Amino acid sequence: MTKRIAFLASDAPVAQTARATLIGRYGDAEPAQSDVIVALGGDGFMLRTLHDTQHLDVPVYGMNRGTIGFLMNEYSETDLLDRLSETEEEVINPLSMRARDRAGRDHAALAINEVSLLRAGPQAAWLKITVDGRVRMAELVCDGALLATPAGSTAYNYSAHGPILPIGADVLALTAIAAFRPRRWRGALLPKSAHVRFDVLDPVKRPVMADADSISIKDIDWVEIRSEPAISHRILFDPGHGLEERLISEQFS
């Protein structure tokens, strides 16, 4: 049976050209009526597509027309139907972030890769970390900290010297960014069920912003983060090039 394919593309000219070419060859369906969504761009566009289509029970297959493409498959125009029939599916859950800013406004966002807290001024951030209601670190002086999913562990988390997590691991990576005190503290591995809270200890002198997959909130007072099992993202990969293999290969590159 022929698959109904919805083609979505980033604003990059190379992605838009690819979309027009593929639509001419395979046709185009609305995402809600499709069997599969093909996202053309880089990892940033793939994350945006996953967020925008999370209400649909439709898998997303990415083809790289961007810069990085860790979540993407190689681009090809001629054999798409055969490739789609042979794909491997990975199912991931995002993080749910709740935050309150200094003005008392509440914010909520979802993050597939990570939720990060970053200093927003010249002074280092002072953070208190609470896990499941228990204070685990009364004061972390740092440029920031983040909580990453296994799918996002090779992104900002890895650049901040956090661990790469197997995709099937029921753990989250809590990683410090340029920790000053405790100077050698690199972070912790937490169970996927953990509820993590960051409190900003001196938000006036040492302002902090929160970022959830590029959704940014300024002047944070506190942030609470947990995994959201009620939401599942279905991602398709070519055989032998799934997230599990990519996560392993990244550690030997």
UniProtKB/TrEMBL annotation:
Reactions the enzyme catalyzes: NAD(+) + ATP = ADP + NADP(+) + H(+)
Subcellular localization(s) per the UniProt record: Cytoplasm
Domain of life: Bacteria
One GO BP annotation of this record: NAD+ metabolic process
Main location (coarse class): cytoplasm
Pfam families named in the record: NAD_kinase (PF01513), NAD_kinase_C (PF20143)
Cofactor (UniProt): a divalent metal cation
A cellular component term, taken from the record's GO annotations: cytoplasm
InterPro entries linked to this entry: ATP-NAD_kinase_N, ATP-NAD_kinase_PpnK-typ_C, NAD/diacylglycerol_kinase_sf, NADK
Top enzyme category: transferase
Single GO molecular function: NAD+ kinase activity
EC assignment: 2.7.1.23
Residues holding NAD(+): D43, G44, R48, N113, E114, D143, A151, T154, A155, Y156, N157, Y158, S159, A178
Active-site positions on this chain: D43 (proton acceptor)
NCBIfam families for this protein: PRK04761.1
Family designation: Belongs to the NAD kinase family.
Function as written in the Swiss-Prot or TrEMBL entry: Involved in the regulation of the intracellular balance of NAD and NADP, and is a key enzyme in the biosynthesis of NADP. Catalyzes specifically the phosphorylation on 2'-hydroxyl of the adenosine moiety of NAD to yield NADP.
Protein name: NAD kinase
